[in-house]
Amino acid sequence: MIPSSTYRLQLGPEMTFDQVAEIADYLAALGVGAVYASPVLAATPGSTHGYDVVDPTIASPALGGEQARMRMVGELQELELGLVVDIVPNHMGIADPPANPWWWDVLANGRESEYARFFDIDWDTGPVLVPVLGSDSLDELSIEDGELRYHEHRFPIASGTEGGTPQEVHERQHYRLVNWRRANSELNYRRFFDITTLAAVRVEDPAVFEATHAAVLRWIANLEVTGLRVDHPDGLANPGEYLRQLRAAAPSAWLVVEKILGPDEVLPSTWPVDGTTGYDALRLVCGIFIDPAGEQAFSELAGNQDLHAMEADRKRWAAENLLRAEVKRISRLGVPEEAVLGFLPRFGVYRSYVADGITSSLPSGGIGEQMLASPDGELVSRIEQTAAMVMAKGVEDTTFYRYNRFVALNEVGSDPGRFGVPVAEFHTKVAAAAESSMTALSTHDTKRSEDVRARLAVLSEIPDEFAEVVHCWTAKVPLPEPTLNLLAWQTIVGAWPISSARLQAYLEKASREAKISTSWTERNEEFDAEVAAWPERVMAELGSEIREFAGRIQRPGWSNSLGQKLVQLAMPGVPDVYQGTELWDFSLVDPDNRRPVDFELRREMLGEIEDTPPPIDESGAAKLHVVSRALRLRWDRPELFTGYEPLHATGSAAEHLFGFLRGGGNLAAVVTRLPVGLERSGGWRDTELSPAGEWTDVLTGRSYSGSIPVSGLLDQYPVALLVRGV
């Protein structure tokens, strides 16, 4: 059941099942086709995101439990809204062992546990290593209520192993508590990237698949869930086989995968899914609003960094340091560690799919030849799983905080080395896109929101002016690390107005992810203190200057925001609206983008603009207007959202108009691109559109026929959504 659109909600303490039910009428009025929810199964107590599932058999008690879930489902069904649920087949949360009954049993009974096969543990290396200790000492262990304790951490004591000191009891267990620093090199269970509190499960085992999916599949069979979003399929042993099994179990569900595609990569045709979660569309949409003429100036501003060398270096570093335990596990299959360390960084994308016969992205020679010789072997799955981890940690989580030439491009699925997207590339790729695939501009994982990127795109049109203010501001209030300094100025301008507290939290994360002068595990207290003090100093000394500069690029930023939103909402695919982004939203990376959303404000504003198109101003009502009109049209007239054909203007400023036709030529989406350059050149002047017939702009209610002067069409909004004959 493919929805007309989705609206992403981050469930948690601020958004429970009952609260979803309360805002469902607003989402229906907005024009949404389905609620798209973060994981809804029981998660680690206190979880703010739900990706650390501890019991996949029940609805999350923290979100309201089964009764509240059914109330939510009833309300959504009453309003004809679908429900798309995010599932996490790769891993489970183990930070709080008593909360995860399967993990608790494994710790208590070791290889004899009925759940020993559920987790991806290398039992041949000995007891399960649990990296929670602050040092190598076991002196702080205690025994309380029949459990082994380490501060707030609780662990089981196997039957028959009682008696003696806590240290003696510990030595008899099927697990060993060890210094947390040993995890990256010695861990003997697979994890999610380098997060030791998320243990990988062997979903390729039919028994594990059934146990972990029973509840969700039952909800689908009962029509309570209409779609699934599959988290991190690249972490699975064989994603293609898993997805074929899932499709067989849920043949009618809309099924999309969080597959990070490179710019030249396509989704494997062997996967029986409806598409991706939309990072490929994000790259294309954002890219057409970036001026390629700004590339050289930004390269010089950043010191002409070598992206490919940096990526190769950081991938090798990630494999050697963060993921050494995974490398060692591969080497136990008969491949020398050094060979593995040299092979993994050579992957140009997240992983290959040798078991599905897709080998184009597999590095040639050496280990690659072994993999091709045995495509269904363990070596293939271990290499491919770890390659995805190396790419994520080396590039997405490190390089993308170091290569700060133009940070609007630093998103998963994007290539920061490609300065924007040519219009011809957009048309070619979108014309071939699946109508059933999700499209997105903001997600819970994006480094910065769509509106931040839209404003940053303006800078690509004024690179020399921006470079001048960066040099000026840096001379007055510098950060001690150059790439962080450039990232900080782009962040301030892109997210303005931003509080000192939000900026401080962001820079702390950015500097530690970059791992240049500090990191999460090797802290530089002097540097950290200087970075922490910087935001307040900047606001005090340069606040008025930054406000003035941000004010000058505000309106073209709004133009880009409306333009990229309309393109996303009207292009092929199922558009997702991330929570709150129907108004201007200048959020940064998680957890900044998980802040509570004021839905009452949005409900009131939607009512106020029903009859009168609002002005473009700080309120964001204009964006709400564009979103609601486009979503409602998708819901009411789905026949208009089929096919794809480029629409070109003629005249002096034709290159500043971007458009396309859909629905057999009965719908036209028209947007402004590079608005600063348009104004400098004298505006639209004689630029015209000549789509045959009579048209109505659903955003303004105005009608047109014959040749349409763009200056009149786009005088109220920088975008238009035209429908023939209405």
In short:
This protein has 726 residues and is an alpha/beta fold. Helices cover 40% and strands 15% of the residues.
Output the strand order for the largest sheet: 16-15-14-5-2-1-18-17
- Corresponding CATH superfamily of one domain: Glycosidases
Strand residue content: 5-15%
Estimated structural class: alpha/beta
Primary descriptors:
726 residues, DNA polymerase, domain 1, 25 helices, 6-stranded antiparallel β-sheet, TIM Barrel, single chain, 15% strand, Maltooligosyl trehalose synthase, domain 2
What do you see in this structure?
40% of the residues lie in helices and 15% in strands. It is α/β, with parallel strands linked by helices and 726 residues long. Among the domains are: 160 residues, TIM Barrel, CATH 3.20.20; 104 residues, Maltooligosyl trehalose synthase, domain 2; 93 residues, DNA polymerase, domain 1; 80 residues, Arc Repressor Mutant, subunit A (Orthogonal Bundle). It has an 8-stranded parallel sheet. The radius of gyration is 26 Å and the shape is globular. The model has no long low-confidence stretch (mean pLDDT 97).
